[in-house]
Amino acid sequence: MPPTHHPAAWDDPATRRAWAKLVTCAFLGQILWPAAWLGLLAWYVTMSMTWTLWLFFVPLLYSFYRAFLQPSYISWAFHARRLLRAYPWQVFEEPENGIGKVPGATAGDVWLSFPNPERQDEKLPMILKVHIRSMWWRRRLGRGYTTEKTKQIREVWFAGDPRFAAVIAVPGPCRFHVVQQRPTNERGVADLRGASPAALERARRAGVRLPDPNSATG
User: Fold this and answer.
1) DSSP state string for 142-190
2) What is the pTM of this model?
3) Most confidently predicted of 48-52, 69-73, 136-140
4) Nearest CA to 22 among 80, 82, 83, 89?
5) What value does the CA radius of gyration of the chain take, rounded to a whole number of Å?
6) Exposed (0-12), middle (13-18) or buried (19+): which is 54, by Cβ within 10 Å?
7) Would you call 5 helix, strand, or coil by DSSP?
8) With contact defined as beta carbons under 8 Å apart, do 77 and 89 qualify?
């Protein structure tokens, strides 16, 4: 049964275990991907044959790419933890989703839609950016719920506020992914979207960048 009775998703032991696995993999990747890149480079230099570059080119390039990305995996994991500590899990059966055709989405962007906490009749789409982390979700969203693959997202766990940011997961929980509303100004600051003071305070605790409340008067 989904742990929706906890005041915060982080209070659920299964959620903490899943996050611990996530962050452990992130730290291991920070060690292993640079080591793999250096090892492949050293092997190529040791062999000292130009033609072998073609054998090593793709593994070298990919391991360098993953090594470059890995610090963002770690910061992403800790961002997820802040959201999980601030918001409870909610469960959505067959949430509305699609490909493109919502404000801010390009033709290939996928999105999930969740109700505004303060106006339940208003649905707010959250767009998943094109990234290696979102690949599992992108392969399943916007295609209905008729295949074995798409049925894996028939039930979505949600911890956050669709006006700002959230962690989505499938039952377990597993397949954590952080989704954020795209900022509406050039500073990368979230739109307030009519949120109450309590909602704004909770969003700040969860690490969401919001306008300075004193900026209008200062």
Assistant:
1) TSTT-STTGGGGSEEEEEEETTTEEEEEETTTEEEEEEEPPPSSTT-PP
2) 0.81
3) 136-140
4) 80
5) 20
6) exposed
7) coil
8) no
